[in-house]
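DATA SHEET
Item: assembly model
Revision: 1
Owner: S.N.
Input lines:
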Amino acid sequence: GQNIDQPTEMTATEGAIVQINCTYQTSGFNGLFWYQQHAGEAPTFLSYNVLDGLEEKGRFSSFLSRSKGYSYLLLKELQMKDSASYLCAVRLTANDYKLSFGAGTTVTVRA
Amino acid sequence: DSGVTQTPKHLITATGQRVTLRCSPRSGDLSVYWYQQSLDQGLQFLIQYYNGEERAKGNILERFSAQQFPDLHSELNLSSLELGDSALYFCASSDGGGRGETQYFGPGTRLLVL
């Protein structure tokens, strides 16, 4: 099976920074995605990494190290609306594009 | 709004019954994916279609089947329903050529089996 591990929960204060780690041991690797999911809603795409390094997109950044099987999502200047579940997903092959998801990290932002 | 539509939004049915969930992908997207999300299992990939053909299969039960029609909409059929099939079912689509093949998710169908 595929192992994609994330912390279950994290809590942070409005305006702060939170880093969500994701480690993976999978049968293949063809890219890593981060999605945000508010309770009962659809996952929405945040970022994609296929090469090592940092991808920055506004308040959100994502990092990948393929040799370590490791990624993180960095959320800066936290806002109350960032309270959600953050899902790390690995695309296993270049042929079929299916994603294998981690269980998700629930981030709670407090005032 | 991702541009992916799913119907119905909610479905309540009884054990042993059969239901059909419908998905329309974003305009121009050729790939459709089905996922199941339950409280204890997270998001699980079920099946993928690309331009009408099955492309990949996950841990989809034999009681479940899917197809993609010539107009690219897809249907997921769930039969002989059990209590454990209660979950959120998401459809996602991708364009087959975009950066990273990003999947865009529909709003989901919440299925409750009583």
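QC remark: The two ends of chain A are 40 Å apart (CA to CA).
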